[in-house]
Every structure is written in C-alpha cells, then in structure tokens.
Amino acid sequence: MLDIQLFRHNIEETAALLLKKGYQLDIDKFNQIEQTRKSLQNEQQALQASRNKLSKEVGDLKRNKQDANSHLEELNIISENLKNVTDQFNSIYEEQKQLLSEMPNIASKDVPNGKDEHDNIEVKKHGEINPLNKESLDHVKIGESLGLYLSEEATKIAQSRFIVLKDKLARIHRGLAQMMLDIHVNEHGYTEYYVPQLVNLKAMYGTGQLPKFSDDQFILNDDNLALIPTAEVPLTNLVSDKILKADELPLKMVSHSACFRREAGSYGRDTRGMIRQHQFDKVEMVQIVDPLNGLDALNEMVSHAENILKALDLPYRVVELCTGDLGFSAFKTYDLEVWLPSQKTYREISSCSLCTDFQARRIKARYKNKAGDTNLVYTLNGSGVAVGRAMIALLENHYDGKHIHIPSALRPYVGGKDVI
RNA sequence: GGAGAGAUGGCUGAGCGGUCGAAAGCGGCGGUCUUGAAAACCGUUAAGGGGGCAACUCCUUCCAGGGUUCGAAUCCCUGUCUCUCCGCCA
Fold first, then answer.
1. Distance between CA atoms of A76 and A80, rounded to whole angstroms?
2. DSSP category for residue A327
3. Which nucleotide is closest to A375, CA to C1'?
4. CA of A197 to C1' of B72 (A)
C-alpha cells in the first residue's frame, strides 16, 4: 500500500508514477473521496469530542447528586448525529481503503521505462553457452528417455501442469533444494525457516496477492486459507504487527517450500514440460531491512541467487525489469534468467525485488531507530532459486546424450556421483 | 470433536461502568556519578489518524466484530486465537 500522503500533497506526480506501472488513477474521483472523507472525519471527531466532554460532566454531576437531565437530552441528540455521520464516514473510508489496496507500488526513478518484458534491460551475462547437450534435447525428452519423468501419471492423479519425478530425478530435485539452502545459510548468512504452505487471507493481503490477484491463487473458501504462491508470503508476514529494534535488522530468512499457482492468465504458455506448473518448489530469500539499506540489500540478494547458478555451472544473465514488467509490490526488480538450450533462450529462474515500505505498510512491520522514532521497514524477496527450473536447466545444459553431469557443488547432495 | 480457562503497551503483568491511555516490573532513551563501563539514583518512554506554518490540539485503539449505556479495558452476544483436560490421530 502506498502512503496516502503521496495523494494528499502530490497527486499529479503520484498519478504519473502509477501510470508507469500501468495503473490509471482517476484523480478527480480520488480527490472527491478524500474531500468527503476529510469533512466527515472532522464532523465525526467534533461530535465525539463533545460527547466525551458532556459524558464526563454527567459523571461529575451524578457523583455530586445533581440533576443531569439537560446534559442527557443534548447527548441523545449528539448520539443520533454521531451514528449517522459514523456510518457515512465508515463507508467512504472503506471505499478509499479498497482503492488504495488495489494500487501497485510505484517504481524507482531509475527503473527503465517500458511496456513488457521486451523492454527489460540486460545488465550482465555470465557463463559460456556451450552445452554438452549438442542436440538441444529438451528436459521432457531427456527425462522420458531416462524413464524418470512421468507426466502422464501426474495428469492421471492430478491434472495438467503437475509432474511426477522418479528415482534419480527426484533425488536431483531434492538435492538441489538442499544445496541451495545450505549455501544461503552457511555462506550468505540467512536463517532457515520451515513455514506453513497454507496461510490465511490476511497474510495473502499483506504481501499483495490479495485483493487484486485472487484469480491466480488457490483459495480454500471453506477454510479461509490459501495455498502459498511463494514462501515470500509466510516469511514476510512473520514480521507483521511487529516493532523491531534497529539492531535486529537486517532479518535474513530463507525457506524451501512448494508453491502453488493457478496460472489463470497463461493458458497455452509453456504447456510442454515443467517450466510452468501449478505446483513447484522454490527456495525463497526474504530480507527485512532498514530503509537506508534497501538498495544494497537488493544487490546483495541478486548476488546470492547468482551464486547458486554459478555453483551449478549454468550460463545466465541478469536483467532489470522495466516499469511495465515490475510486479505489483515491487519498486525495483532484477531477474536472473538461465540459458535453456532447447529453447535457445534465457528463461526466468529467479526474481529479486525491493518492495520498499509497500508491504510493510500493509502488514504494519516497523522498527524503532536509535532516536526512538518508529518507522516502516523495507522488505525484499528473491528466489534463490526456483528448484524445478534449476533442474530443467541442469538437465538441458549438462546432458551429454547418455548421462547428466553433476556439478561438483551438487555432488554431495546426490550421492557423490559425478554423472547420473 | 467435547469440557473449562484466558487474550491488556516493545516484553511480563494489575485493573472497582466515569477521576484509565491504563498500576507495577523489565526493556529502551536522557541525565547524575565514573578515566570509561557496570551498579545505584533521577527523569523520560505506546501506536494510528485528523486539524494547524507552528506552539499545539482533537479523535481512535486494552484480540476482532456487533450490542447495552449519557459513558465500556471493565457488562452481554458472535467470531478468531492460545492454554488445560478428555476423545481421535500422522
């Protein structure tokens, strides 16, 4: 959620910033709501003040055994008015809140302008594109030829966009997640968490998945719970309603979880293979930081994700997302894209975002600085990295026609073998 | 699933329908003392919002939502969560 002060003082400028994120603000409507809110609130508070004052006097009179009837009459009138005004205020206040909660975060000034992913800027390339996989077989062919990739079975017991992995492939998948966790914990200073993969709707609202993107979520309406689309949701909400001490920051958390997405808007995209699934595993990093350190933390987080790809010996590039491709809560985002020989292109495998105080305001995550002031924290999240896609990239880049070559960093996690 | 108890500030915890935004302790901050620190002592310290250039001032908040009342942390109802006991169970 954006700071409402942005709309009170610089609504034109704010509207322009929102437009870059693809949100069209109706300035007149907003101003009108704001004005109504203001006058109703003033009226309500004036009535409350006189009610409080008179009620106090009633107490005094009664204690002195004096007559309070004239006060009581006046109070009846005030009560009636107050009830009226309060109803009106509540409804306009709700309307304003609803409006604000559906607005995206604004982008950093230095984020490149653009419409969609084609306007993203490549900022870095790493690794040589010279895969062992000379025929550019895709992961489905490789997995099936090994007899370890069971898509029909998955469809039988679930639906399309689910997968069953068997034996060595399941082992690689598990090993990848464990390797990533160990690197983040041992080398990058994160604390590992195990978190609920169903969360309440308040938590989903807190990180920005609701109310606007309910179509993308699996929601269990009978239980008021949702399957998490990313561990960012439970991890970030860990600090909701908290006032942290300055020296507790930064908080660096990491978790391996399954992620569930309905992929409502992506019919027909990536239907082959396990690029885009309803259920996939991800190792997620979340940082809660002092606002002064937001950008440094973002750069650091990107390097943490990069280290995973380096450890796996995978060619990748880093792109900065343009304004039109930034997520709802993001202020600035870098994606890591890994080379997929079968598609002859780089595909997203990690996304690291600085969300400034956008989520913090929703979840009331604050910290007290040395001077004793209470302020909102900044939140960041990044994949470190998507496990399924890492496995795909590993298969496609390190398959020599017969075996999958295991990078040395991963070997301890898959039984020590250098080929599988 | 059944029975009972509870939810109060950063934390622990007291609280009679009005003098309660709320005792006390811890913690934080400032000071005295000290070469420095600790201890001791003194002071101070909730959050959110409205109005005002400002000094300041007003409103809201004691789990959430309703209700009773001139007035609710306190009384009533509903919900959520926590704890204890019983049942079931990976």
1. 6
2. -
3. B47
4. 40
Provide ipTM, 2 decimals: 0.85
> Of A54, A70, A101, which residue is a domain's last?
A101
Distance between the alpha carbon (CA) of A242 and the C1' atom of B25, Å:
22
Please report whether residue A156 resides in a domain: yes
Domain boundary among A101, A125, A154: A101
Q: What percent of chain A has pLDDT over 70?
A: 100
| Same domain? A279 vs A376 | yes
A12 is a domain residue? no
Bases on strand B under 7 Å from any protein CB: 10, 18-19, 28-29, 45-51, 58-60, 70-71
Cite residues whose beta carbon is less than 7 Å from strand B. A 4, 8, 38, 41-42, 44-46, 48-49, 51-56, 58-59, 62-63, 72, 75-76, 79, 243, 366, 368, 370, 372, 374
Nearest to A355 by CA among A287, A418, A410: A287
The model's pTM is 0.93
Tell me: do A305 and A384 sit in the same domain.
Answer: yes
A212 CA, B73 C1': Å apart: 37
Query: pLDDT at residue A160 above 80?
Result: yes
d(CA A323, CA A115): 7
A52 with A178, same domain? no
State residue A138's pLDDT score.
94
CATH code at A150? 3.30.930.10
A137 lies in which domain range?
Answer: 117-413
A89 and A208, same domain (yes or no): no
Helix (H) or strand (E) holding A350: strand A345-354
Q: How many Å apart are A348 CA and B11 C1'? A: 44
Strand (E) or helix (H) holding A320:
strand A316-320
Residues A82 and A129 in one domain: no
Band (pLDDT 50/70/90 cuts) for residue A130 is: confident
* Cα end-to-end span (Å), chain A: 48
In angstroms, the CA of A271 and the C1' of B39 are apart by 71
pLDDT, tens digit, 9 for 90 and up, residues A28-73: 999 999 999 999 999 999 999 999 999 999 988 887 878 888 889 8
Cα A387 from Cα A218, distance rounded (Å): 20
Computed over every residue of chain A, the mean pLDDT equals 93
Across all strands, nucleotide nearest A242 (CA–C1'): B10
Number of domains in chain A: 2
Measured CA A419 to C1' B48 distance, in angstroms: 60
Which tokens sit at A284? 């997620």
Instruction: Quote the pLDDT of residue A290.
Output: 92
Mind listing the pLDDT tens digit for each residue in A267-292?
A: 778 889 999 999 999 999 999 999 99
